[in-house]
Amino acid sequence: MTRSQWVAVCTGILAVLLGGGYLLLVQILDWRGEFLPAPVEPLGFLVAAWRP
User: What are residue 44's phi and psi, to 5 degrees?
Assistant: First the structure.
């Protein structure tokens, strides 16, 4: 195999590994439960206090 073929094979393997890792990360984060955003009430108070 030539150098360009080795680069293509290594790039393909890296792409598959990154894709699999991403899917695994998404499954783990989804398994943890529903994502709840942070409460905004205290943050609104801090933003209002810093206005010039």
Answer: -60, -35
